[in-house]
Amino acid sequence: MDDREVWSRAVTAVAAEYRALPMALRSRVDATVDAIRSTKGELHRLAEAMQCATICASCGGECCVRGKYHVTVVDILVFLAAAEPLFVPRFGGEACPYLDGAGCMMAPSFRPFNCVTYNCERVEGGWDQERISEFYRRERQLRDLYGELERFFGNRFMHGLLMNYERDVMDRGEPILRYSERWIDGNDDQ
Asked: Which of 81, 88, 92, 111 would bridge with 115, disulfide CB 3.0–4.6 Å?
């Protein structure tokens, strides 16, 4: 099975599991992914205010060369909750499969964790300490939100959608979005 087929099956599995979530849990997931999308947008705005796009364009996006495993289950949930159409990656090339001729296939608030939290020395070198502190405060906030979804589903999502699908569905025959009844009722104290 090639990467394109694994991607397609993984997205299909996550979408079906998401649609099958009990409404109370799905509401909590939706609220969390809305906060994730908002936080990603804030991280992007902080970087954009310092003209990182110009710096990134001048180097050709060297940090984007390899990104096959950057898109995670969380990122797919963000697309699903926002009812946004999902892009089709371009696997098999030398560049990140989530790039096309116009750049990243995802709007900034939908980009993977690694993509919105990484700043090379050229980008961050021009920032004052206050901006750096604000950026990393938001990065921690984003990490906590990802962790919240990992707690809901008893699964680690930072390893990438393809890895989660191969490990959980293909190898173990388990769903990706596993959850405990305690998350349905909002009773997190158990």
From this structure: 111
Q: pLDDT for 76-112, tens place per residue?
A: 999 999 999 999 999 987 778 998 888 889 999 999 9
Cβ proximity of 98 and 104 under 8 Å: yes
Note the Cα 185 to chain centre separation in Å.
Answer: 26
Give the three-class secondary structure for 35: helix
pTM of the model: 0.89
Q: CB neighbours of 119 closer than 8 A, spacing ≥ 6?
A: 47, 52, 135
Residues contacting 81, CB < 8 A, separation 6+: 18, 29, 30, 33, 34
Q: Which residue has the tokens 């030398």?
A: 94
Q: Measured at the alpha carbon of residue 83, what is the angle toward residues 137 and 98, in degrees to the nearest 5?
A: 65
Phi, psi of 187 (to 5 degrees): -90, 85
Q: Is 185 contained in some domain?
A: no
Domain residues for the domain of 159 are 3-179
Is 31 part of a structural domain of the chain? yes
In the chain, how many domains are there? Answer: 1
Does the residue 126 lie in any domain? yes
